[in-house]
Design goal:
This protein has about 150 residues and is an alpha+beta fold. It contains two helices and nine strands. The chain has a five-stranded antiparallel sheet, covered by helices on one side. It has a four-stranded antiparallel sheet with strand order 4-5-6-7, with no helix packed on it. It is globular.
């Protein structure tokens, strides 16, 4: 009788632990992403008030690229998830829209649009720690996409 009661208690505890963890797990293949619209400038302070400098890790990556600017500022940023095989569309500004398709195996297809017209598409692996950088339609606009936490 004692063994039966102990077994029921252990099973109940395991059930509740599994139930508690079920709500916090993400589906395998889902990508949590962060997209930023960034402008490049040679001015040490942004010409538009309210813009903040990019994070230092992104700035280091941008400075390794053959871009002509000394400073980079975040215009907007969005965090979102994309399921395996799904596509997520979002606007980073009134003129800049992106569409991100999760191709599986941590590969994404990023489509850039300006005022509803496609202006570019790039397909790339996007593992944790990697950054996808794509030029926007404006001369000094850049879209940065990376996996979030």
């Amino acid at each position: 009788m004692k063994l039966f009661l102990a077994t029921r208690i252990v099973c109940a505890a395991i059930f509740f632990l599994l139930l508690a963890g079920a709500g916090t797990r993400t589906v395998a293949g889902d990508l949590k992403l962060e997209a930023q619209l960034i402008i490049g400038s040679n001015d040490s302070k942004p010409q538009v008030s309210g813009l903040k400098p990019v994070a230092s890790d992104i700035e280091k990556k941008l400075k390794k690229l053959p871009l002509k600017w000394d400073h980079y500022y975040v215009v907007s940023e969005k965090k979102f998830s994309v399921g395996n095989g799904d596509t997520k569309k979002t606007s980073l500004s009134t003129q800049c829209q992106i569409s991100v398709r999760n191709l599986g195996d941590q590969r994404v297809e990023l489509t850039l649009a300006s005022n509803g017209q496609n202006v570019g598409k790039i397909t790339q692996s996007l593992h944790k720690g990697q950054t996808l950088v794509a030029g926007g339609d404006a001369d000094n606009s850049i879209v940065v996409l990376r996996q979030g936490n």
